[in-house]
Amino acid sequence: MSAAGRAACLVGVGETRYTKWGGITDASEYQLAVQAVLAAIADAGMTPDDVDGLASFAEDRNDATFMAADLGLPELRYASLSWLPGGGGACAAVANAAMAVESGAAETVVVYRSLCQGQFRRFGQGPGNVPARVGPRRVPHVRRATSLLEAHVGFTMPFGMFSPPIAYAMVLRRHMHRFGTTEEHMGHVAVATRAHAARNPRAVMGGRPMTMEDYRASRLVSEPFRLFDCCLENDGACAVVVTTAERGADTAKGPVAVLGSAQGAPHGFGHGQYSNVGMPDDDYASAGARGVAARLWARAGIAPADVDVAQIYDHFTGLVLLSLEDFGFCERGEGGPLAASGALAWPHGAMPTNTHGGSLSEAYIHGLNHVVEGVRQLRGESTCQVDGAETCLVTSAAGVPTSALVLGRR
Amino acid sequence: MTLRWFPDEMPMPAASAETMGWWEAAADHRLVVQTCTECGTTRHPPGPLCPHCRSSAWQWRQVPGTGKVYTYTVVHQAFIASLSDRLPYVVAAVELDDAGGARLVSNLVDVEPAAVTVDMAVEVVWEDMGPELAVPRFRPIPGAAPGPRR
Questions:
Q1: pTM for this entry
Q2: In terms of Cα–Cα distance, which of B25, B28, B44 is closest to B36?
């Protein structure tokens, strides 16, 4: 097969039902992962007999090895897990699958994520959260860490920085101090995203319209973040099928091309601001994605102005503003005013963003659902369809090592 | 302090081979920063190599324990149930004086959360959790004008 014939494309997407935290009790997280993978394969017009690779990203509990056996794959030829943590690896997992099919290591790879926060820990109850008085010793003491991350959060957990909203609220406070970003700027992200969810029958918050007054009235979590600045905690799974252009040409709904991808983190970034507050100020008050963005645009051969629609990782409203800056849609410090201009809102905004409702209002599947929505936009299937969309930016996380894709119709 | 600032259910630190010495110094009320003995670069959290010159030679350097608030948040949600009667509390990143720009995550005590500002001058106050563990928290320096100190 020629190099062009092996170019990676996305040919299937699928998901389970999405519910609030604890809403799914009749299927395990792993069973949901299997359901989502089967749905994506069916969407491509394929069967598991066509699949020879599986990919996911850090913190996945649902091993590809067991998945391959349970799906009855004829042979597993590729299995990978991106190191990028906390949602930063969703686009990277797709990119790794794309590299596998382009190299010839595999023909068809399914990327998946399942996240049942009702069946496992909720965030804020993470590593290092061991009460002082458990274990054989009766006096408070320093334990031996069982992982590098646990040792790092040993410098945050005892001070009550348990959870991502606390860590990233501090990032936004710094950004506000430097650039004058406001809570109302963040509110524009929350309100626009909720309006998109209202049109999406899959969205957890589909029946819950929100005004700026509702946003302002929501309770404080960790200043400046309110409840509606924070993404959902929910149950659900989704998956994406990656194959070669040659194979993709005769799939059920046609191929969506991967025009470019990039992943990584700046010098000294570590796990990001969640465990590192000592990085340079320009990186601290940012999404940490400027290097990823520069490489992404170079590889895709397009500029930010060429993007028709975007799915930008929204674990917190404020981090969307910082991603808009890092990916070059505005200058540093101008993310808030850009959101306030209405640019993100479908249908009239300059670049409708998170047209499925994002992690704030559709579902929090560590951002793999943003890739699913990118595919739907380029097929013309979105519930907030951008007319004639030909290019879609998808980003994964912010404030941890990140990744991104440019998807397109060739 | 006789009254614990946080409830006993708070998580205690876990340490790696590189970070244990920091906690041992803290138990003696010494605030230290890992410092490369080859090039003098400081780093926190501690790690095995200097990211600047890649030397594995390092020492703990004691710092004065003063600094300024780099950023902060006021926490209003009890992520551990027993924290509910300690809300709200302040988590801050403190940029330490004479520490090569190193910053620590800690708490601000003896201050109204609404009075906290970026660049506020602060000093360490030690809370003994037991004979083997002390935790540094920070309070405003009495009489110090808010604003950059250097």
A1: 0.95
A2: B44
